[in-house]
């Protein structure tokens, strides 16, 4: 996957995205996640890879200070249309290279983004960079099974799934290990499909004073 290919794929996905990923089990999963993670009006909140705004529909966005980014112009326009009367700041931006300040946000939300970007580690590092030390990173995404290799079938179909703009083989444990100096995992919960889709809550790891 690369950004140029993702632009093409998500231009095609944008008219029908909500029918697949803002309905049924996906909608139920999002409702569960945001019911368990209430936000407050004093927080600065960032939605990374906001897509068509499916997550925004499930929070009290009228009362919150929200920045929402996406690399796909078409997906972002869908979200803008839904929330054209809101104060949400929509920005076209690469999640791997955010033009945002360090330690800017109290909460960073990433739904189905680590499995989409060309480099999940870069994206995660950017989330860590922009969240405040006492802040929270909330991930909802699909990952390879814990402590297991992908099945032969999934290995075979993985390249074809990637052509559709997503990856079924991202290993969160490897990402966690790579970022163990800066990230502390507070929650790791199975959400859908026997743990393929997980809710992961993290915060910046506090460093001891020098």
Write a compact overview of the structure shown.
It is built from 7 helices and 7 strands. It has 210 residues and is α/β, with parallel strands linked by helices. Strand 2 (65-70), helix 4 (73-82) and strand 3 (89-92) form a beta-alpha-beta unit.
Describe the structure.
- This protein is an alpha/beta fold.
- The chain has seven helices and seven strands.
- A seven-stranded mixed beta sheet has the order 3-2-1-4-5-7-6.
- The longest helix has 13 residues, at 24-36.
- The protein is globular and about 45 Å long.
- The mean pLDDT is 94.
Strand content: 15-25%
Shape: globular
- Spatial strand order of the main sheet: 3-2-1-4-5-7-6
Mean pLDDT: 94
Number of strands: 7
Given as residue ranges, the uncertain stretches (5+ residues, pLDDT < 50) are none
The major β-sheet equals: 7 strands, mixed
